[in-house]
Design goal:
InterPro entries: Aldolase-II_Adducin_sf (IPR051017), Aldolase_II/adducin_N (IPR001303), Aldolase_II/adducin_N_sf (IPR036409). This is Class II aldolase/adducin family protein. Belongs to the aldolase class II family. Pfam families: Aldolase_II. It is built from eight helices and seven strands. 40% of the residues lie in helices and 14% in strands. The N and C termini lie close together (12 Å). Helix 1 crosses helix 8, helix 2 packs across helix 5 and helix 6 crosses helix 8. A seven-stranded mixed beta sheet has the order 3-2-1-4-7-6-5, sandwiched between helices. The protein is an alpha+beta fold. 40% of the residues are buried. It has a single domain, classed as 3-Layer(aba) Sandwich (L-fuculose-1-phosphate Aldolase), CATH 3.40.225. Strand 5, helix 5 and strand 6 form a beta-alpha-beta unit.
Amino acid sequence: MATQLKRNLDCTEAEWAARQDLAACYRIFDALGWSESIYNHISLKVPGEDDAFLINPYGLMYSEVCASNLVKIDIDGNNLDGSPYPVNKAGFTQHAYFHRHLPNAHAICHVHTTATMAVCSLEQGLMPTNFYACNFIGKIGYHDFEGVTVRAEEGERLLANLGDKRILMLRNHGPVVLGRTIGEMFIQMWALQRACEIQCATLAMGQPVHVSDDVVAVHQRDLGQVALPGGPGAAEFAAWTRKIDRIDRSWRD
């Protein structure tokens, strides 16, 4: 159980709140089937500390992550909280580069879900063939596969291929989703996952219908009219947090 993996921790109230948000996010991803054994990563900047962020302990399942066992590191990879756990180098290299260079990249996830990896491996990438996909057309960057992301020099190319976008599809690999808040990152990941699932299902049946550029533009323009208060993803993230609370509250420890 995750409660057996907790540790005593001395931190600010703001950091503890961030730790609970991130721990909740790991449990939500796990509940949605987005975890990948002990691999992949979600990171969150520590409030008031520009050079510090939280990430999962390498070796634990997402279902074992809790607020106290998250690892606090700086953008140079230094352990800042005395955690006994290591950090996946692939997670550090990729996330640290974005946290270092993008002021609004407060929350970042990288996943290997079947649907998103399949679309990343498709020559056309994400196509405007369903409601959710139309959210992202023109708003996604693509980065050619260079092997496991452990070399710091690849960071420059990752950043260049991301450009002004908030999602980077690593070809033959999987997506990186960035958000100004953990809720914004979550809702973008949720919609991207649905877009990819539906695209895969549609392609399995035959030739999909493509939505025109004009209609995509109208769709993206009007999305703001159905937004909930609190900022992008806030209500959705809160709803999923309530759901995992009903399953297991140990992530709060």
